[in-house]
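Lab channel / #folding
Pinned by the channel admin:
"Please post every new chain as: sequence first, then the structure tokens as a reply. Keep commentary short and put observations after the output so the thread stays searchable."

First post following the new format, from NK:
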Amino acid sequence: MNMSGTLVLVRHGQSDWNLKNLFTGWKDPDLSPQGVNEAKAAGQRLKAKGLKFDLCFTSALTRAQHTLKLILAELGQTGLPETRDQALNERDYGELTGLNKDDARAKWGEEQVLVWRRSYDVPPPGGESLKDTLARSLPYYVHMIQPHVLDGKTVLVAAHGNSLRSLIMAIEGLTPEQILKRELETGVPIVYKLKANSLPEKVETLLA
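Reply from TO:
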């Protein structure tokens, strides 16, 4: 019989490019000093909950990997099995990547940039929509992460705003409209207790 397990999702701490208001996507800046503090604080909150992890997952990008490393150090749980995969990478922003968001609005117009940022299935030029991001991140979750949770393990995932939105959409059964309104703060853990049918029994956001 499958046991109920625990899944923790954490968006990486603030990156240098978040700080500069740039579209980041698959580019690989590290955490800002604030981002380092946010990741450490996430680890402290998880420690206060008494969570002991069995394994962890992250993306192929430095800011998520660094966040995970800092969290595990705060928990005193370094050396856990860690899997890195670009399936958990942030959404690819294509031609917007590296642009200041204000400059992008000046170039393409505020309305067009808003459509690219906040629609479910309209990608920016050369990039991915949220639907495209879900198409790679959700199968990875279902095949590589969820089975461990349903086996009763406690699993930590440090990734990105849009790859995590994809997972949350599936876990909570949200519509495209609902998930587009979900803001994920940097460095704030979301703790799911999953039932054997993979649906959440309990959801807790660990705010400061």
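NK: Residues 6-92+130-205 form a domain with the Rossmann fold fold (CATH 3.40.50.1240).
TO: also worth noting, The two ends are 36 Å apart (CA to CA).
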